[in-house]
Structures are given as structure tokens and as C-alpha cells.
Design brief:
It is a single chain. The protein contains eleven helices and 16 strands. The protein is an alpha/beta fold. The strands form five sheets. The protein has a seven-stranded mixed beta sheet, with helices on both faces. It has a three-stranded antiparallel beta sheet with strand order 14-16-15, with no helix packed on it. The radius of gyration is 21 Å and the shape is globular. The two termini are 20 Å apart. 49% of the residues are buried.
Length: 408
């Protein structure tokens, strides 16, 4: 069994430093059993795949880990799930790739193209762009679909939308789907505005909060059992669970889940800073501190000590305010987040030279899930009052969520 902790920085496939030889300890000093991701539980899911034609939904995070580390603790031995399955003579027919592509190198919003995997020669089918849901033709001949993608537990992070559309397509074409579960690093809380039905789309397909506090396996079970798939269809779903994990287990992603989430801090701040995606404010794209700072050229200079200039880099070919000096704030000393915060969004709005230009209304509403939040901020409603307005919907969701939790 293996567990993977610490930061994943730099190169998109560079792993976090970890040690699988030293037992983990909790705060009382007791030994903690290491987390086992479902992809490592081959004895559980291989019998489901053998003798069948398989489609796999995967990206760069879909890996099977081994416990042999280098001397500095970096896990050098892991294999992509696709390569593992091929080596085990599983008959993979096609691979489906979400936003950011199969290898996780494509910018947010950038087209992901069909292609061929250079290592295995398998056809790659894009599920981002015009084709977001597998067609009957693309599923033809498959006996089962295997889904294994690392999520970060934020509604507008599009991997859960891909999951829902794949489940829907499988249900419509009578193809079973198996989800290999992975830890959600933001599973320790539920918070944020709940998506309103009139604003649903690829950034939020169901009426769930901004942060929903579930693993991708738990979420798959919820949307299936609650009848949230289109036309009320129900998938033949099986989730392979994690071992030795709870919603409060600290877990650092060893491979960045997308180009602009390079480390634990960015992932922890993403629920709050991701709301900047619907504004004119840069949230660190084009720097090495994505979702760990914010700024813009037209924020009042006297209010800020941080200046930075976004440039083209991995994951951000054309970041907001590319080549322009931004004035803003670094969040590198912010304590671990256990709720969504609006303070930085409200701070930027307050210190904009012209606040009326901050929001890209349609895009902001898609991210927030409601048109009300922008109006509340513009009207000067306090953060505490705004958060009170979320509570009734959050309580309704918590009751639904509770029915589908697989872990403590």
C-alpha cells in the first residue's frame, strides 16, 4: 500500500516528494495506514475487465503507484493506468480524454483534439470541445467503460461534468461503467452558492454547491441514485473504493490535476480564487503561483504591495493582462482553507479603478452558479450576510449528500 503527500510543482508530470518506506503518523503520534487509490486495487477491478472490450476515460492523473522511491523520496515508479492495463492483456479499444487532454498539457478552454496515443497506438477521443458526450458510434463495440480521473471537488472543475455525460451515454447505450475512486483534497467541507437550475451547463450540470465535499466515486453514486442523469436514465455503475481514507484525511496530489493547479496551496485556494475566472482579475495564471495570488493593472496601486507581470507559460499561453504589470495580493501565508472565502474577490472589486468593469457577468454567473452573487457584491452586502443566504440550500444538499457518502 502507498500514500502520496506534499507538493507537486514545476513540470506537469513531476511528482510530489513522498516516502513510502516511513510509516505516517497522526497528530497523536500513532501510525496511520497509508491511503490506497482504487487504481492500485487491481485485484478488485481486473476481474471486471478481463475478456471484455474496454473504453477508458483518463488523463495524466490516471496512474498506478508503486512503493519503490528514489533516495530523495520522489516516487519514480508509477505507470499510467492505460499502460498497466495493456501490459495485463486487457483489451482496450479506445481512450476518452477530458479538458486539458490525455496528458494534461492543454490550456483551460483550449480545444482538445482526437488523436492517437504514441505509446500504445490506441485511438484518443476528445470529450472537450464540440464533443463532450461520447456518441453511440464512439461507444459501439464496448463492453464496459472504466473512468479514472483525479478531481479537486469544485463544481466548475469540468471533470465531474465529463463524468456525468459519460455515465449518461453509458446508460443510454446499456454499457456498464466502473469508476476508480481517488481522494478529493477539498472533501473536508461543503460550502458556496448552490447552482441554480437556469444556469446549469458544463461548469455545473446539477444543483450542487460550489464545494460539495465528495470523492468522484461518491459523486457518481449520488447523480446516479438521485436521478440526475438526463431523462432519468440510470447507469449500471460500480465504484471501486479507496482504502484507509476519510473526508478529513490529508492528501497531497502527486501529479498536478490540471496545468494551473501546481500544488497543495493552489488546490486549497482554488474554490475561492476560481471565482476570479469570471472577472477581469488575473488569479496568478501566467506566473508560477497560479491560484495563489491575484491582481490587475487597474487595481489601485496604493492598496497593494505585490506587483507581477503575467507571461506565457505552461498552461497559460495567453493569461489575462499578459505582459502588463499587475497590482495585487499574494496568498502564500494564508492558513489552510476550510470554507469558501469571498474576501479577495470583494477586495479586488473595492479597489478597482472602475468597479463596473470587474465582472464578466455571463461568465461569472456560470462560475458562481447564480446571478445573485455579483449583485450582492456590487451592492456592498457583507461576506457574512452573503454566506447566510446560502445556508438553506446548503442544508438541503447536505441531506442528499449524506445518503451517498462511502467514507467517514
Amino acid at each position: 500500500m502507498w500514500v502520496l503527500f506534499a507538493y507537486a510543482c514545476g513540470n506537469p508530470t513531476k511528482e510530489a516528494k513522498t516516502s513510502t518506506d516511513t510509516p505516517l503518523m497522526d497528530k497523536e503520534g500513532d501510525t496511520v495506514p497509508p491511503v490506497v487509490v482504487a487504481a492500485n486495487r487491481t485485484a478488485v477491478y481486473l476481474p471486471l475487465l478481463q475478456g471484455k472490450k474496454i473504453g477508458v476515460v483518463a488523463n495524466q492523473t490516471s496512474v498506478v503507484f508503486s512503493g519503490n522511491d528514489s533516495k530523495d523520496g520522489t516516487p519514480v515508479n508509477h505507470v499510467h493506468l492505460i499502460d498497466s492495463l495493456v501490459s495485463l492483456n486487457i483489451d482496450i479499444v479506445s481512450v476518452f480524454a477530458p479538458e486539458h487532454g490525455f496528458r494534461g498539457t492543454v490550456d483551460a478552454g483550449e480545444k482538445v483534439s482526437d488523436g492517437t496515443d504514441a505509446r500504445t497506438g490506441l485511438p484518443l477521443i476528445s470529450l472537450y470541445g464540440k464533443n463532450r458526450k461520447p456518441s453511440a458510434e464512439q461507444l459501439k463495440g464496448l463492453d464496459l467503460v472504466l473512468f479514472d480521473i483525479q478531481d479537486v471537488g469544485v463544481r466548475f472543475y469540468t471533470y465531474i461534468a465529463t463524468l456525468q455525460l459519460v455515465m449518461e451515454a453509458c446508460a443510454e447505450n446499456n454499457i456498464p461503467i466502473v469508476v476508480l475512486d481517488r481522494p478529493n483534497p477539498n472533501a473536508h467541507y461543503v460550502d458556496g452558492p448552490v447552482m441554480e437550475a437556469e444556469h446549469t451547463g458544463f461548469l455545473g450540470m446539477t444543483e450542487i454547491p460550489l464545494v460539495y465535499g465528495m470523492t468522484i466515486g461518491e459523486y457518481a453514486t449520488m447523480i446516479n441514485e438521485e436521478g440526475w442523469l438526463q431523462a432519468g436514465v440510470k447507469a449500471d455503475l460500480q465504484v471501486v473504493p479507496l482504502e484507509n481514507w476519510t473526508h478529513d484525511t490529508a492528501y497531497s496530489l502527486p501529479i498536478r490535476p490540471s496545468p494551473n493547479l501546481p500544488n497543495d496551496r493552489s488546490i486549497n485556494l482554488y474554490p475561492s480564487l476560481g471565482l476570479f475566472e469570471g472577472t477581469t482579475i488575473n488569479a496568478g495564471r501566467g506566473t508560477e503561483f497560479q491560484f495563489q495570488r491575484y491582481g490587475a493593472p487597474d487595481l489601485k496601486q496604493e492598496a497593494y504591495t505585490l506587483t507581477y507581470t503575467p507571461v506565457s507559460n505552461f498552461g497559460a499561453k495567453n493569461p489575462k493582462h499578459k505582459g502588463k504589470r499587475c497590482y495585487g495580493r499574494s496568498l502564500d501565508s494564508i492558513p489552510f482553507m476550510r470554507s469558501v472565502s469571498l474576501r479577495w474577490l470583494m477586495d479586488a472589486y473595492k479597489h478597482a479603478e472602475d468597479p463596473s468593469t470587474v465582472f464578466n457577468t455571463e461568465n461569472f454567473t456560470k462560475h458562481a452558479g447564480t446571478a445573485l452573487l455579483q449583485k450582492q457584491i456590487a451592492a456592498g452586502v457583507s461576506e457574512s450576510e452573503i454566506k447566510k443566504s446560502w445556508q438553506a440550500d446548503l442544508e438541503k444538499f447536505r441531506a442528499i449528500r449524506l445518503r451517498h457518502l462511502m467514507y467517514d
